[in-house]
Amino acid sequence: MTDIAAPKTTVSVTVDGRTVEAKPGELLINACEHAGSFVPHFCYHPRMSSVGMCRQCIVEVDGPRGKALVVSCMTPVAEGQVVSTTSEPAKRAQEGVLELLLANHPLDCPVCDKGGECPLQDQAFSHGPGESRYVEEKRHYEKPIPISDLVFLDRERCILCDRCTRFASEVAGDPLITFTSRGNDTQIMTFPDEPFSSYFSGNTVQICPVGALTASPYRFKARPWDLEQVESTCTTCSVGCRTVVQSSRDELVRYQGVDIESVNWGWLCDRGRFNFESVNSKNRVNAPLVRKDGALVDATWSSALDAAGRILRTIINDKGPSAVAIIGGARGSNEDAFAWATLADLLGINARDAQLADGLPAEVFALPQATIAETCVSSTVILLAPDLKEELPVLYLRLRDAAEKRKTRIIEVSPRATGLTDYAWKSIRHDPGDQPRVVRELIAMPEVAAQLALGNVTVVVGRGNLAESPEFALLATGAVLHAVPEARVLPVVRRGNVRGAIAAGLTPRQADGDTNSILAAAAAGKVECLILLGADPVVDVPDADLVRRAFASVKHIIAVDTFVTESARHAEVLLPAAAYGEKVGTTTNCEGRVSDVAQKITTAGTARPDWMIAAELALELGVDLGYSSYTELHDAMTTTVAAFAPAAVAKAVRHEGVVVAHPAPVRITAAASSAAPRLTHHFRLLVSRVLYDRAVSTSESPSLAPLARDSGVHLHSSDAQRLAVREGSDVRVAANGSAIVLPVVIDDAVSRGVAFVPFNQHGSDIRQLIRHDVAVTDAVIEVV
Amino acid sequence: MSVPNGPRIITSRFDLADGHTYAGYVRTNGYQSLRKALGTMTPQQVHDEVKAAEIQGRGGAGFPAGVKWGFLAADVHPRYLVINGDESEPGTYKDRMLMELDPHQLIEGILLACYALNAAQAFLYVRGEMAVAQERLAQALNEAYANNIVGKNICGSNFSVDITLTAGAGAYIVGEETALIESIEGERGMPRLKPPFFPAVKGLYMQPTIVNNVETLANLPYIIGKGGGDFKALGAPTSTGMRMFAVSGHVNKPGVFEVPNGVTTFRMLFEAPEYCGGVRNGGDVKAFIPGGASAMWFFPEHLDLALDKPTVDKAGSMLGSGAIIVMDQSTDMVAACWRIVRFFARESCGKCTPCREGTTWLERVLKRMLDGHGRPEDIDLLFEVSESISPGLAWPPRQTTICPLGPSAVSPITSAVRRFRHEFEHYIEHGRPIDGVESPFVVPTASHR
């Protein structure tokens, strides 16, 4: 026997005299970059398919048929290739293309937002011919024109690289911009009367290699060389996209997506990208407020802490710690939550909940877990979640990519068609409350069973309906885990750091310590003081009646917040909190990934990080949290909380971050049972979130606030016909002894017999009809 | 002048009043080759006859059709035949005649090709402007379906083919095969990159696809009827068969002529009474374009070259799609050059930078010269911009572009400037053409733009 060498799994390529090993099939432009030779380019983007349109990345390749100029973004590496990125022919071609690109470019760099960070400008200097010989008249267009509420297009600057259009169709699935006209008149345009209203439009601005696309929140705000920046993590939702936070003159001016492999691939949603405006809002609370003669008035920190301490001391002394409850904490960092949980431990407060009765039972985080990356390479993804395009937009991008470009098959079980329905292998409609039965029967179907038998199954579970008990989604998940025991779960909750806050200890320490129970106890007079940590139950808790009764009975409210929210309005003491970008910390996303959140600007007024407020209040109450700096706090957290142990090293939480340690997984043992079916003349309520609502970060961002829609009840066209109502007609929606009037929206995405009402929109409040102790909400709809 | 003789193969029904009808076609032995193939030949035998005929593709590149068919990815189905009827090279109008005057001959050719390729679906793509051709083909297809010539179980055999008629929307670039495929798919007519999108591997709807020209397929009934060897014997060994040439410009009788391939010379074509009957007004040829507007120009010294692919290739141009444009001594070469460059600038699809920006730049420089605002450095500039589109200004052209449209705008410039540099210099110096020439077209003045 002779030795057989292991087959070579790489390809050797020589670039400008240096030999590197490349992956088979890898593009030459990448191999060149790895070899340390930058190849100028405009249309090529590593996260999108190559189109070879700008022709800038021409290099010279010496192959079997002699030397040839090739476009390196379209040419795969081949064994023994000898590449020159700087040979005379290559340089001549690169200079030629650059001169042609600049021929019609207006060169208005001094007034262009991109000037200073512009790939065209930079590469014109590094790879261009130095001067232009073009003396003819340049192309002229009206400039700039709005193509959506947020984005402006300057067609004179555009070099037609196809990046924005490719992003829109290929990545976002919103092909709302395209090329029109031909030849030298080619331009990017929207379709007539159809704006580029994509939730992801800001990404086109970021990837535009010139200043053709600009976004209104940043236009003319700063010059790139004035910007300071720091890498951070977005906490708008629980995806936890990696960003850079940029400021100028101590004011946030822009967020840009950072490409990390495990989460966002460089993309952001527009809400996350542009809500920095809310940090800069004039309505921020700059100083502590204390109630005096019925009104909240400015106070010093010492008098405010004194007032808060007095309230807590009195109640704990008189009624014991069970008369105090903490709601919230998911908007802050892990460390913030840990500090407050420590304080609660020291004071004996067991009633605490980071979720506002709009999330999932904490036990989903203890099921066998999948990361986002693992989910996106699963053979099968079962979606038992809200519309991810609306709630966790970048996770939608990742799953869409998995279904479109990879082998993942999505099975969606939802009361309404969602953004992912078009990409799903199967999309099944069901009545709210009936998901467990539908899932059980679905996975028994031979075709589905065969698919699941391929293994590698992930269940994405979330709170799809705020007018329905989350138990049903949990039972449906249990049904899958029963049939496919090795399946894993990706829990998706909307709010940024729910998972971190729970891990840090802001989760009930007693059976009836969750937000609904706390509010019920407050309504019954058993809880006398509510501490609200960046929580606005008056707006967010689904059962509005419960909140109303609780707030009517509770004696004292201490709020820690960035704004005077609807709930904070009722506070006796309002302590101003540092906002995103104003404090350091770590955050935990839905998959349990811990990554750092950076401080870029000084806090508004005298606002402080939540953890510092906890520490000060502890001293006021005569207890000591044991740390006086962020570093000590972070160390205390990572040594105390086992889940956060991997985050102990500062380096671990940078860039890609690190996934929390998981306890031994629990199992769901309850049998999958559904709610009783609705009566035929009833509509079962589906209340879920859309991206733009009245949340503070949106409503305090001037660019985003107008994007929130008016409330309405969405009905299938056949149901509308049966009720004899038209689009826009007012109907009376009655359930659980309450009724509201809403305009009708005809929407065939909604299943028949289901009434969908987007949560937290302008107009009548659907929460009037929701009761926390009613598992599903059946409504009667009548013409007014 | 004596010219080589040959039969009229594919233009045989051009003089019949009903040559385009099913009845007229069948009366003149139509669909006999199809019946022969279905009855007595295997697909491989049909393929072998086409190979033996050595027929070069008549669309422009001149690649042997039988060899091209061999590139089709084996055993991958569905596979498609696409017929390129988007004839739009300036000066060429032979395919239009074939589609208008003998549509059934094309249909029979399509069916023979599908039989050889084992394809069950063909897409017949006809240029948007050719309304008559579209109607005649639609009518012919209806007749063919009605007579069980196209559709299920053709002529009682187990061979079935559907032919879909697709009309273009009027873009030159759609004559390029991958742009044509994009257009059939409903996308903008923009070329695809080769690699990886070689149609024979990843073509229409990402399936293996053969794209053939109308004239190429129209020859198949003859090749299968008489045999590939018979066809090959008609022309030169290097350019077999009969071939159609469309002559336009300054000749007495412009038109389409089917001539023995590879043996007839340009001079014969221009001067013989049975063909063009001489240059107009008894004049002399100043230049001629041998193979469509994208070809390099030829001059009087090339007149005795044979219409033979290797001969013309070697002389530094191409026969292309068989479109020959003759310019006599009265032609203003700067104006002629500009007019051709303008065509390509306007027809650039806009996808890649060198073509989109470069062709328009070239057009504007030339127009400026015609308007009397040329600068001495403009001649060098024309070459420099051309170099950015087609490095080396060589023939066959190299390209920085995705498809050959960009370099097509370079051919007239290098041809005209190298040969008639003094005419360009005269424009630059005096703002008008040399004495004794005039523009072959109306040149709009600057104020008209």
Rounded radius of gyration of chain A (Å): 28 Å
SSE run of chain B: HHHHEHHEHEHEHHHEEHEHEHHHH
**Strand arrangement across the biggest beta sheet of chain B:** 3-2-1-4
Q: So, CATH architecture of the largest domain in chain A?
A: 3-Layer(aba) Sandwich
What is the end-to-end distance of chain A?
A: 90 Å
**Beta fraction of chain B:** 5-15%
The average pLDDT value of chain B, as a whole number, equals: 95
Structural class of chain B: alpha/beta
**How many DSSP E strands of chain A?**
34
How much helix is in the residues of chain B? 40-55%
What does the largest sheet of chain A look like? 7 strands, mixed
Provide the gyration radius of chain B in Å: 22 Å
Q: How many domains make up the 3D coordinates of chain A?
A: 5
Mean pLDDT of chain A: 95
Question: Can you give a write-up of this model?
Answer:
Chain A is of the alpha/beta class and 784 residues long. Chain A has five domains: 11-102, Ubiquitin-like (UB roll) (Roll); 105-216, Alpha-Beta Plaits; 289-359 and 498-659, Rossmann fold, CATH 3.40.50; 362-492, Dimethylsulfoxide Reductase, domain 2, CATH 3.40.228.10; 683-783, Beta Barrel (Barwin-like endoglucanases). Chain A has a seven-stranded mixed beta sheet with strand order 15-14-25-24-23-16-17, with helices on both faces. In chain A, a hairpin with a 2-residue loop joins β14 and β15 (295-298). With 449 residues, chain B is α/β, with parallel strands linked by helices. Chain B has 17 helices and eight strands. Chain B has a four-stranded parallel beta sheet with strand order 3-2-1-4, with helices on both faces. A four-stranded mixed beta sheet of chain B has the order 6-5-8-7, with no helix packed on it. Chain B is globular and about 75 Å long. The mean pLDDT of chain B is 95. The A-B interface holds A 51-56, 58, 68-69, 71, 74, 89, 92-93, 96-97, 99-101, 103-104, 133-134, 136, 159-160, 179, 181-186 and B 171, 188, 193, 195, 345-354, 356-361, 364-365, 368, 377, 381, 384-385, 387-389, 391, 398, 400-402.
